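User:
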Amino acid sequence: MNFPSLKKHKFTTSRSTAGLLNVAILLAGSIQTSSAQGQNYPETQACHDITARIKDMLDHNQYQQALPIAEHAIRKYRTCARAYMQKGLILAELDRPEEAIPFLRSGFKLAPNFNEKWAWDALAHTLYETNKQQEAIETLTKALNHVSYKPGIYDTRGRMHSEMGHFDLAIKDFNQQINTCTDKTECDFRSRGLTYLRMKRYEKAIIDFTMQIKSNPQSIDYMCRARAYKALGKIKEANSDQAKARKMSTATGLEDL
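Assistant: Predicted structure:
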C-alpha cells in the first residue's frame, strides 16, 4: 500500500486526512501544535502589521485575495522575510509550486534562522512536489536546527523517506517523532504503521494502528489494521476491523488498500 499522494492527500496527520499545504496545518503547526515561537530576525512594525493581515486571510483560505497584498508587502518592504514566505505559501496553495520556491528561498535568505515550522514545511513540500526530493529532505534536516518543537519535522521527513522507499530512515524519524511528542494523544502512529505495512512487518503495524485508534481513529486505521490481520491469517479480526471502517466516513486513499 502506498501513502496517499503528496499533492492529493498532502501528508495525513494523526488528526485528519487534510492537505499537506492546508494553511491551518502550516500556520498552526501540523500534528503537534506548540506555543508560538519567538521571533529571531529583525522585523519592522510595518512588516509585522501587513503580514499579520495576510496570515488572517490565509487562516480563512483567502489565497487569491491575499496574493496581491503579499506582493505589495514585498515591493514596499524589501527585507520583510515573512512576506516572501507567505507569498510562496500562497502560490503553493494555488498549485503554482515552481513559482513558490523562489519566494520561499528568498525569505530564508533574508532570515536564515527563521524558527517557525510552517515556512520550513512549505519549502520542503513544494520542493518534494517538484521532484526535488533530496533537497526537500535536506531542508527538513536544516529545520531541525531552528524549530524548537521538532516532532512534526521528524514526522514529515519520515513520510518523505517512506515515499522514497527509505524505510529504515523513515522508521528512525517516526521513532523520534513519537519519542519527542509531548502529548502522546497527538502523536502520529499511523505513518509508522503504514511504513511497517509496506515492509510487511505486520505485527508492528498492528501495534501502531491500535495506538492510533486509541487516540484518534479514522476509517483508514481500521482498514490498514485489517490488512495486517489478514496477512497474518487472522480473518476474524480483519473482518471486524473492516466492518468498523465501513461505519465511519470514507477516508481518502482507501482505494489503495
